[in-house]
Design brief:
The chain contains eleven helices and 16 strands. By secondary structure, the protein is an alpha/beta fold. It has an eight-stranded mixed β-sheet with strand order 9-8-5-4-3-1-10-11. A five-stranded mixed β-sheet has the order 14-13-12-15-16, sandwiched between helices. The longest helix is centred in the middle third of the chain and has 20 residues. Bound molecules: iron/sulfur cluster (SF4) (2 copies).
Protein backbone atom coordinates (compact mmCIF):
# COMPACT_ATOMS: atom_id res chain seq x y z
CA UNK A 1 0.00 0.00 0.00
CA UNK A 2 1.46 3.41 -0.96
CA UNK A 3 1.93 5.48 2.21
CA UNK A 4 3.00 8.89 0.88
CA UNK A 5 2.29 11.09 -2.12
CA UNK A 6 5.36 9.96 -4.10
CA UNK A 7 4.54 6.32 -3.59
CA UNK A 8 0.96 6.97 -4.62
CA UNK A 9 2.15 8.74 -7.80
CA UNK A 10 4.55 5.88 -8.55
CA UNK A 11 1.96 3.19 -7.94
CA UNK A 12 -0.24 4.47 -10.76
CA UNK A 13 2.50 4.36 -13.38
CA UNK A 14 3.53 0.95 -14.77
CA UNK A 15 7.16 2.02 -15.32
CA UNK A 16 7.67 3.43 -11.83
CA UNK A 17 6.17 0.49 -10.00
CA UNK A 18 6.88 -3.14 -10.88
CA UNK A 19 3.58 -4.14 -9.23
CA UNK A 20 1.57 -1.85 -11.50
CA UNK A 21 3.10 -3.12 -14.73
CA UNK A 22 0.49 -5.87 -15.02
CA UNK A 23 -2.36 -3.62 -13.96
CA UNK A 24 -2.14 -0.34 -15.84
CA UNK A 25 -1.68 0.28 -19.57
CA UNK A 26 0.25 3.18 -21.06
CA UNK A 27 0.02 4.84 -24.44
CA UNK A 28 2.91 6.66 -26.10
CA UNK A 29 2.06 9.48 -28.49
CA UNK A 30 4.66 9.77 -31.28
CA UNK A 31 4.44 13.53 -31.84
CA UNK A 32 8.11 14.51 -31.45
CA UNK A 33 10.31 13.52 -34.41
CA UNK A 34 13.25 15.98 -34.10
CA UNK A 35 16.25 15.72 -31.79
CA UNK A 36 18.75 18.31 -30.56
CA UNK A 37 21.69 16.07 -29.72
CA UNK A 38 23.39 13.09 -31.34
CA UNK A 39 24.05 10.12 -29.09
CA UNK A 40 26.69 7.84 -30.55
CA UNK A 41 24.48 4.79 -30.03
CA UNK A 42 21.55 6.21 -32.00
CA UNK A 43 20.67 5.95 -35.67
CA UNK A 44 18.12 8.70 -36.27
CA UNK A 45 16.36 6.71 -38.96
CA UNK A 46 14.61 5.14 -35.99
CA UNK A 47 13.10 5.94 -32.60
CA UNK A 48 15.06 7.54 -29.75
CA UNK A 49 17.26 4.75 -28.38
CA UNK A 50 17.20 6.36 -24.93
CA UNK A 51 13.73 4.85 -24.62
CA UNK A 52 13.27 2.35 -27.45
CA UNK A 53 15.01 -0.68 -28.88
CA UNK A 54 17.23 0.22 -31.84
CA UNK A 55 15.65 -0.34 -35.23
CA UNK A 56 12.13 0.51 -34.08
CA UNK A 57 10.21 3.01 -36.16
CA UNK A 58 6.95 4.61 -35.19
CA UNK A 59 4.35 6.56 -37.07
CA UNK A 60 4.31 10.33 -36.48
CA UNK A 61 1.09 12.02 -35.38
CA UNK A 62 0.11 15.67 -35.14
CA UNK A 63 -0.97 16.77 -31.64
CA UNK A 64 -4.63 16.78 -32.77
CA UNK A 65 -4.36 13.26 -34.23
CA UNK A 66 -2.60 12.05 -31.11
CA UNK A 67 -5.24 13.39 -28.73
CA UNK A 68 -8.03 11.99 -30.94
CA UNK A 69 -6.33 8.60 -30.89
CA UNK A 70 -6.47 8.51 -27.08
CA UNK A 71 -10.28 8.36 -27.36
CA UNK A 72 -10.14 5.43 -29.78
CA UNK A 73 -7.68 3.51 -27.59
CA UNK A 74 -9.57 4.26 -24.42
CA UNK A 75 -12.72 2.66 -25.76
CA UNK A 76 -10.86 -0.63 -26.00
CA UNK A 77 -8.44 -0.39 -23.09
CA UNK A 78 -10.27 0.30 -19.87
CA UNK A 79 -7.03 0.05 -17.84
CA UNK A 80 -5.37 2.92 -19.76
CA UNK A 81 -3.74 5.08 -17.07
CA UNK A 82 -0.69 6.84 -18.53
CA UNK A 83 -0.11 8.91 -21.66
CA UNK A 84 3.55 9.45 -22.49
CA UNK A 85 5.53 11.37 -25.09
CA UNK A 86 8.70 9.42 -25.84
CA UNK A 87 9.81 10.57 -29.24
CA UNK A 88 10.51 9.23 -31.74
CA UNK A 89 13.03 12.09 -31.19
CA UNK A 90 13.24 14.26 -28.09
CA UNK A 91 9.98 15.46 -26.52
CA UNK A 92 11.37 18.88 -25.56
CA UNK A 93 13.20 19.49 -28.85
CA UNK A 94 9.67 19.51 -30.34
CA UNK A 95 8.26 21.76 -27.66
CA UNK A 96 5.35 23.31 -29.59
CA UNK A 97 4.03 19.87 -30.55
CA UNK A 98 4.63 18.42 -27.12
CA UNK A 99 2.95 21.36 -25.39
CA UNK A 100 -0.08 21.25 -27.71
CA UNK A 101 -0.43 17.53 -27.00
CA UNK A 102 -0.16 18.02 -23.23
CA UNK A 103 -2.76 20.79 -23.37
CA UNK A 104 -5.09 18.46 -25.29
CA UNK A 105 -4.59 15.69 -22.73
CA UNK A 106 -5.25 18.03 -19.82
CA UNK A 107 -8.40 19.41 -21.41
CA UNK A 108 -9.92 16.19 -22.69
CA UNK A 109 -8.55 13.46 -20.43
CA UNK A 110 -7.72 15.07 -17.07
CA UNK A 111 -7.90 11.72 -15.28
CA UNK A 112 -5.02 10.23 -17.34
CA UNK A 113 -1.44 10.68 -16.14
CA UNK A 114 0.77 12.59 -18.62
CA UNK A 115 4.50 11.82 -18.70
CA UNK A 116 7.42 12.33 -21.03
CA UNK A 117 11.01 11.34 -21.64
CA UNK A 118 13.85 13.60 -22.73
CA UNK A 119 17.61 13.85 -23.11
CA UNK A 120 17.32 16.83 -20.74
CA UNK A 121 19.05 19.50 -22.83
CA UNK A 122 15.97 21.73 -22.58
CA UNK A 123 14.66 20.42 -19.27
CA UNK A 124 15.52 23.41 -17.10
CA UNK A 125 13.99 25.73 -19.71
CA UNK A 126 10.62 23.95 -19.82
CA UNK A 127 10.43 22.53 -16.28
CA UNK A 128 7.94 25.09 -14.97
CA UNK A 129 5.67 24.73 -17.99
CA UNK A 130 5.70 20.96 -17.55
CA UNK A 131 4.58 21.39 -13.96
CA UNK A 132 1.87 23.83 -15.02
CA UNK A 133 0.65 21.33 -17.60
CA UNK A 134 0.27 18.67 -14.91
CA UNK A 135 3.18 16.42 -15.88
CA UNK A 136 3.95 14.34 -12.81
CA UNK A 137 6.49 11.84 -14.19
CA UNK A 138 9.56 12.67 -16.28
CA UNK A 139 12.30 10.37 -17.58
CA UNK A 140 15.69 11.96 -18.27
CA UNK A 141 18.58 10.11 -19.89
CA UNK A 142 21.88 10.93 -18.18
CA UNK A 143 24.78 8.79 -19.36
CA UNK A 144 27.61 10.74 -17.81
CA UNK A 145 28.30 13.47 -15.25
CA UNK A 146 31.82 14.04 -16.57
CA UNK A 147 31.97 16.38 -19.60
CA UNK A 148 35.21 14.76 -20.83
CA UNK A 149 33.57 11.36 -20.86
CA UNK A 150 30.41 12.83 -22.40
CA UNK A 151 32.48 13.83 -25.42
CA UNK A 152 32.90 10.12 -26.15
CA UNK A 153 29.15 9.46 -25.86
CA UNK A 154 27.68 12.38 -27.81
CA UNK A 155 28.74 13.42 -31.30
CA UNK A 156 27.24 16.85 -30.67
CA UNK A 157 24.79 18.96 -28.75
CA UNK A 158 22.75 21.72 -30.41
CA UNK A 159 22.56 24.44 -27.78
CA UNK A 160 21.23 27.92 -28.60
CA UNK A 161 21.84 27.46 -32.30
CA UNK A 162 25.42 26.23 -31.88
CA UNK A 163 26.36 22.63 -32.64
CA UNK A 164 29.34 21.48 -30.62
CA UNK A 165 31.09 18.46 -29.12
CA UNK A 166 33.40 20.57 -26.93
CA UNK A 167 33.59 20.27 -23.13
CA UNK A 168 31.53 23.48 -22.71
CA UNK A 169 28.65 21.99 -24.73
CA UNK A 170 28.83 18.76 -22.71
CA UNK A 171 28.85 20.76 -19.46
CA UNK A 172 25.78 22.66 -20.69
CA UNK A 173 23.94 19.40 -21.33
CA UNK A 174 24.80 18.16 -17.84
CA UNK A 175 23.94 21.45 -16.13
CA UNK A 176 20.56 21.59 -17.85
CA UNK A 177 19.80 17.96 -17.02
CA UNK A 178 20.62 18.37 -13.32
CA UNK A 179 18.97 21.79 -12.99
CA UNK A 180 15.82 20.42 -14.66
CA UNK A 181 15.75 17.41 -12.33
CA UNK A 182 16.14 19.71 -9.32
CA UNK A 183 13.39 22.07 -10.40
CA UNK A 184 10.92 19.29 -11.14
CA UNK A 185 11.64 17.06 -8.17
CA UNK A 186 11.34 19.95 -5.72
CA UNK A 187 7.79 20.42 -6.92
CA UNK A 188 6.85 16.79 -6.53
CA UNK A 189 7.49 15.47 -10.06
CA UNK A 190 8.82 11.90 -10.02
CA UNK A 191 12.05 11.63 -11.95
CA UNK A 192 13.32 8.42 -13.47
CA UNK A 193 16.81 8.56 -14.98
CA UNK A 194 17.71 6.25 -17.84
CA UNK A 195 21.39 5.36 -18.18
CA UNK A 196 22.68 3.46 -21.19
CA UNK A 197 25.48 1.15 -20.04
CA UNK A 198 28.07 1.34 -22.82
CA UNK A 199 30.79 -1.33 -22.61
CA UNK A 200 34.24 0.16 -22.33
CA UNK A 201 32.88 3.72 -22.26
CA UNK A 202 30.80 4.63 -19.18
CA UNK A 203 30.48 1.35 -17.20
CA UNK A 204 32.79 2.29 -14.33
CA UNK A 205 31.25 5.75 -14.14
CA UNK A 206 27.61 4.67 -13.69
CA UNK A 207 27.57 4.62 -9.83
CA UNK A 208 28.76 8.23 -9.94
CA UNK A 209 25.91 9.14 -12.30
CA UNK A 210 23.39 7.47 -9.99
CA UNK A 211 24.67 9.38 -6.96
CA UNK A 212 24.65 12.69 -8.82
CA UNK A 213 21.07 12.30 -10.07
CA UNK A 214 19.98 11.16 -6.62
CA UNK A 215 21.45 14.34 -5.15
CA UNK A 216 19.51 16.33 -7.76
CA UNK A 217 16.23 14.65 -6.78
CA UNK A 218 15.73 11.58 -9.02
CA UNK A 219 13.79 8.77 -7.40
CA UNK A 220 14.59 5.83 -9.68
CA UNK A 221 17.25 4.84 -12.20
CA UNK A 222 16.86 2.53 -15.16
CA UNK A 223 20.24 1.13 -16.26
CA UNK A 224 19.75 -0.11 -19.80
CA UNK A 225 21.96 -2.30 -21.98
CA UNK A 226 23.63 -0.85 -25.05
CA UNK A 227 22.06 -2.62 -28.03
CA UNK A 228 24.39 -1.62 -30.85
CA UNK A 229 22.26 0.07 -33.52
CA UNK A 230 23.35 -0.56 -37.05
CA UNK A 231 24.49 2.67 -38.69
CA UNK A 232 25.37 4.33 -35.35
CA UNK A 233 28.88 5.32 -34.27
CA UNK A 234 28.77 2.60 -31.57
CA UNK A 235 27.58 -0.13 -33.97
CA UNK A 236 30.90 -1.95 -33.49
CA UNK A 237 30.60 -2.20 -29.69
CA UNK A 238 29.36 -5.41 -28.06
CA UNK A 239 25.86 -5.52 -26.63
CA UNK A 240 25.91 -5.13 -22.82
CA UNK A 241 25.14 -8.51 -21.31
CA UNK A 242 22.12 -8.98 -19.04
CA UNK A 243 24.51 -10.23 -16.38
CA UNK A 244 26.56 -7.02 -16.45
CA UNK A 245 23.42 -4.89 -16.33
CA UNK A 246 22.09 -6.89 -13.35
CA UNK A 247 25.40 -6.60 -11.50
CA UNK A 248 25.45 -2.85 -12.06
CA UNK A 249 21.85 -2.52 -10.87
CA UNK A 250 22.73 -4.43 -7.70
CA UNK A 251 25.68 -2.13 -7.14
CA UNK A 252 23.59 1.02 -7.64
CA UNK A 253 20.62 -0.23 -5.64
CA UNK A 254 22.35 1.08 -2.49
CA UNK A 255 21.90 4.63 -3.82
CA UNK A 256 18.51 4.54 -5.56
CA UNK A 257 15.77 2.02 -6.41
CA UNK A 258 16.39 0.35 -9.76
CA UNK A 259 13.90 -0.26 -12.53
CA UNK A 260 14.23 -3.85 -13.70
CA UNK A 261 11.19 -4.27 -15.93
CA UNK A 262 11.79 -1.73 -18.71
CA UNK A 263 10.75 -3.07 -22.11
CA UNK A 264 12.47 -0.37 -24.23
CA UNK A 265 9.11 0.35 -25.80
CA UNK A 266 8.29 1.93 -29.15
CA UNK A 267 7.50 5.66 -29.29
CA UNK A 268 3.93 4.62 -30.22
CA UNK A 269 3.61 1.73 -27.74
CA UNK A 270 0.10 0.99 -26.40
CA UNK A 271 -1.03 -1.44 -23.70
CA UNK A 272 0.59 -3.24 -20.81
CA UNK A 273 4.39 -3.01 -20.83
CA UNK A 274 4.70 -6.68 -21.73
CA UNK A 275 1.88 -6.71 -24.26
CA UNK A 276 2.28 -4.06 -26.92
CA UNK A 277 -0.98 -3.58 -28.83
CA UNK A 278 0.10 -0.59 -30.93
CA UNK A 279 -0.24 -2.57 -34.19
CA UNK A 280 -4.00 -2.85 -33.58
CA UNK A 281 -4.36 0.91 -33.56
CA UNK A 282 -1.99 1.90 -36.31
CA UNK A 283 -3.29 3.25 -39.60
CA UNK A 284 -1.10 1.58 -42.18
CA UNK A 285 -0.91 2.71 -45.76
CA UNK A 286 -1.79 -0.06 -48.22
CA UNK A 287 1.07 -2.22 -49.42
CA UNK A 288 1.90 -1.32 -53.02
CA UNK A 289 1.22 -4.90 -54.11
CA UNK A 290 -1.80 -5.40 -51.93
CA UNK A 291 0.04 -8.47 -50.81
CA UNK A 292 1.72 -7.23 -47.65
CA UNK A 293 -1.32 -7.87 -45.54
CA UNK A 294 -0.86 -11.49 -46.48
CA UNK A 295 -4.59 -11.87 -47.05
CA UNK A 296 -4.61 -11.79 -50.78
CA UNK A 297 -2.12 -11.81 -53.60
CA UNK A 298 -1.27 -8.63 -55.45
CA UNK A 299 -0.61 -8.34 -59.15
CA UNK A 300 1.93 -10.77 -60.60
CA UNK A 301 5.54 -9.80 -59.96
CA UNK A 302 7.64 -9.26 -63.00
CA UNK A 303 10.13 -12.10 -63.08
CA UNK A 304 13.76 -11.09 -63.28
CA UNK A 305 17.11 -11.12 -61.63
CA UNK A 306 15.93 -8.96 -58.73
CA UNK A 307 13.28 -11.31 -57.45
CA UNK A 308 13.97 -12.68 -53.96
CA UNK A 309 12.35 -15.00 -51.49
CA UNK A 310 12.18 -13.52 -47.99
CA UNK A 311 10.87 -14.98 -44.71
CA UNK A 312 9.26 -12.58 -42.22
CA UNK A 313 8.36 -13.00 -38.54
CA UNK A 314 5.11 -11.18 -37.84
CA UNK A 315 2.27 -11.70 -35.42
CA UNK A 316 -0.52 -9.76 -37.11
CA UNK A 317 0.83 -9.73 -40.69
CA UNK A 318 1.29 -5.96 -40.66
CA UNK A 319 4.54 -5.27 -38.84
CA UNK A 320 7.79 -7.13 -38.33
CA UNK A 321 7.00 -7.54 -34.65
CA UNK A 322 8.27 -10.95 -33.57
CA UNK A 323 11.58 -12.29 -32.30
CA UNK A 324 12.92 -15.08 -34.54
CA UNK A 325 12.80 -17.50 -31.61
CA UNK A 326 9.20 -16.56 -30.72
CA UNK A 327 7.79 -17.06 -34.21
CA UNK A 328 5.44 -19.98 -34.65
CA UNK A 329 5.35 -19.47 -38.40
CA UNK A 330 7.23 -17.66 -41.12
CA UNK A 331 5.50 -15.59 -43.77
CA UNK A 332 7.27 -16.34 -47.03
CA UNK A 333 7.21 -13.51 -49.58
CA UNK A 334 8.45 -13.22 -53.09
CA UNK A 335 9.57 -9.65 -53.60
CA UNK A 336 11.52 -7.32 -55.83
CA UNK A 337 11.47 -4.63 -53.13
CA UNK A 338 8.64 -2.72 -54.79
CA UNK A 339 6.02 -5.37 -55.19
CA UNK A 340 5.57 -8.35 -52.91
CA UNK A 341 3.44 -11.46 -52.91
CA UNK A 342 2.80 -13.64 -49.92
CA UNK A 343 3.53 -17.18 -51.09
CA UNK A 344 2.77 -19.12 -47.93
CA UNK A 345 2.69 -19.19 -44.15
CA UNK A 346 5.19 -21.85 -43.02
CA UNK A 347 4.95 -23.32 -39.52
CA UNK A 348 7.98 -23.02 -37.24
CA UNK A 349 8.60 -24.62 -33.84
CA UNK A 350 8.91 -21.85 -31.25
CA UNK A 351 12.11 -22.28 -29.26
CA UNK A 352 12.79 -19.13 -27.28
CA UNK A 353 11.08 -18.39 -23.96
CA UNK A 354 12.71 -14.99 -23.70
CA UNK A 355 15.04 -15.92 -20.85
CA UNK A 356 18.13 -17.01 -22.71
CA UNK A 357 16.78 -20.57 -22.83
CA UNK A 358 16.65 -20.35 -26.60
CA UNK A 359 20.42 -20.44 -26.91
CA UNK A 360 20.44 -24.05 -25.68
CA UNK A 361 17.62 -25.32 -27.92
CA UNK A 362 19.87 -26.21 -30.78
CA UNK A 363 17.71 -28.80 -32.45
CA UNK A 364 14.70 -26.47 -32.70
CA UNK A 365 16.87 -23.75 -34.14
CA UNK A 366 18.36 -26.14 -36.61
CA UNK A 367 14.84 -27.21 -37.56
CA UNK A 368 13.77 -23.60 -38.19
CA UNK A 369 16.86 -22.86 -40.21
CA UNK A 370 16.28 -25.96 -42.37
CA UNK A 371 12.81 -24.64 -43.13
CA UNK A 372 14.31 -21.51 -44.62
CA UNK A 373 17.01 -22.88 -46.89
CA UNK A 374 15.05 -21.81 -49.99
CA UNK A 375 15.00 -18.18 -48.75
CA UNK A 376 17.45 -15.41 -49.59
CA UNK A 377 16.79 -13.44 -46.41
CA UNK A 378 14.97 -13.38 -43.10
CA UNK A 379 13.40 -10.18 -41.81
CA UNK A 380 12.83 -10.35 -38.07
CA UNK A 381 12.47 -8.00 -35.10
CA UNK A 382 15.29 -9.62 -33.08
CA UNK A 383 17.39 -12.75 -33.35
CA UNK A 384 19.98 -14.47 -31.15
CA UNK A 385 23.57 -14.38 -32.29
CA UNK A 386 23.84 -18.17 -32.76
CA UNK A 387 20.74 -18.44 -34.92
CA UNK A 388 21.95 -15.46 -36.94
CA UNK A 389 25.33 -17.04 -37.54
CA UNK A 390 23.72 -20.29 -38.68
CA UNK A 391 21.47 -18.51 -41.13
CA UNK A 392 24.41 -16.55 -42.50
CA UNK A 393 26.39 -19.78 -42.83
CA UNK A 394 23.56 -21.05 -45.06
CA UNK A 395 23.85 -17.91 -47.17
CA UNK A 396 20.64 -16.45 -45.73
CA UNK A 397 20.85 -12.73 -45.03
CA UNK A 398 19.39 -11.51 -41.71
CA UNK A 399 17.72 -8.11 -41.48
CA UNK A 400 16.58 -6.91 -38.05
CA UNK A 401 13.74 -4.45 -38.34
CA UNK A 402 10.61 -3.31 -36.50
CA UNK A 403 8.96 -1.64 -39.44
CA UNK A 404 5.92 -2.44 -41.54
CA UNK A 405 6.45 -5.66 -43.48
CA UNK A 406 6.55 -3.66 -46.71
CA UNK A 407 9.51 -1.59 -45.46
CA UNK A 408 11.26 -4.67 -44.07
CA UNK A 409 11.01 -6.40 -47.45
CA UNK A 410 12.32 -3.30 -49.20
CA UNK A 411 15.25 -3.14 -46.78
CA UNK A 412 16.04 -6.81 -47.36
CA UNK A 413 16.04 -6.39 -51.13
CA UNK A 414 18.33 -3.35 -50.89
CA UNK A 415 20.80 -5.36 -48.80
CA UNK A 416 20.58 -8.35 -51.16
CA UNK A 417 21.20 -6.18 -54.20
CA UNK A 418 24.11 -4.50 -52.47
CA UNK A 419 25.52 -7.88 -51.53
CA UNK A 420 25.20 -8.98 -55.14
CA UNK A 421 26.99 -5.86 -56.38
CA UNK A 422 30.13 -6.38 -54.24
FE1 LIG B 1 18.75 9.49 -30.58
FE2 LIG B 1 17.26 9.92 -28.44
FE3 LIG B 1 19.90 10.45 -28.40
FE4 LIG B 1 18.24 12.00 -29.80
S1 LIG B 1 18.27 11.73 -27.58
S2 LIG B 1 20.19 11.17 -30.54
S3 LIG B 1 16.74 10.51 -30.57
S4 LIG B 1 18.95 8.43 -28.60
FE1 LIG C 1 8.32 2.26 -19.36
FE2 LIG C 1 10.71 1.45 -20.31
FE3 LIG C 1 8.54 1.35 -21.84
FE4 LIG C 1 9.54 3.72 -21.16
S1 LIG C 1 10.52 2.19 -22.42
S2 LIG C 1 7.37 3.12 -21.21
S3 LIG C 1 10.30 3.28 -19.10
S4 LIG C 1 8.87 0.21 -19.96
Amino acid sequence: MPCNESELLASKHPCYSAESQHKFARMHLPVAPACNIQCNYCNRLYDCVNESRPGVTSEILTPAQAVAKIGVVRERLDNLAVIGIAGPGDALANWEKTRATLVGIREQYPDLIPCLSTNGLLLSQYAQELIDLGVGHVTVTVNSVDPMLSQKIYAYVDAAGVRSNGPAAMQKLLDNQLAGIRLLSRQGVLIKVNIVMIPGVNEAHIPEVVQAVKAAGASLTNIMPLIPASGSAFAHLPQTSNKDVSTMREKCQVYLPQMRHCQQCRADAIGLLTQDRSAEFRELPACPSGGCSGKKSGPAIEQGKSLFRVAVTSKYEKLVDQHFGHAERFLIYETDGIRSNLLESRSAPKYCNGNGYCESEREFKQENIKKLTDCDAVVTMRIGSQAKERLLAQGILVVESCTEIREGLEMAVQHLLLQRAV
